[in-house]
Write a structure and sequence with these properties.
The chain is mainly alpha-helical and about 220 residues long. About 60% of the residues lie in helices and about 5% in strands. A 3-stranded antiparallel beta sheet has the order 1-3-2. Helix 1 crosses helix 3.
Length: about 220
Amino acid sequence: MKVRREQKRLLAAEIGAAILQGDYRPGEWLRQIDLEEAFAAKRFEVRGALAQLAASGMVAHVENRGYRVAQPDMNVVREMLAIRILLEVEAATQALPNIGQTELERIKEAQRAFEEAVARGSKADQANTNATFHDEIYRHASNQSLARLIVEIRNRARPGPIALWPSYADLQRSAAHHVEIVAAIEARDVEALVAAIRRHVAESGANYPARNHSPIAGRSEASG
């Protein structure tokens, strides 16, 4: 990734943005020579930027080895996902009576936007349309503080700066979960909606950092 060098005080922000958009995954080593080339920067500038990112917690410094993108604490990930399930089930249950045909069409549009991003979009497009789909549902909850808290918990629970799916198959599974959620809303089936929300949060490949490790269920196969 070649970029024009900006003022050196922005380098940490540029590297941080690259991490946010998924150019570097959790646990990946950040070789200074590679960063110098990618960001057209000098060695001392890269070192300074990495030190800033380490101070913010976005990267971790390993003595005598270098810097790597911070890995999530899996205990925290598990706990946050369990909280997410409780909150999102409650929000969806509250939202259902307030979703009429007009609201349902907007939810379907958000579902189709995610499917389009799965097929042709960037990682950022996929993350943003996924979040929009859920927000389009939860914004109809009667408790709007709950809807806002879900966004906060979602960001804290995520094992990376943006939602990243391990594979295209995981993305397709998430898209299929969305279809199930929409079908439950359209059928006004609370039990089916609750089950679909639980399954989606617990199994989504975007909610854990490595394949073959589901933080909720401990499944041997990643789902998303």
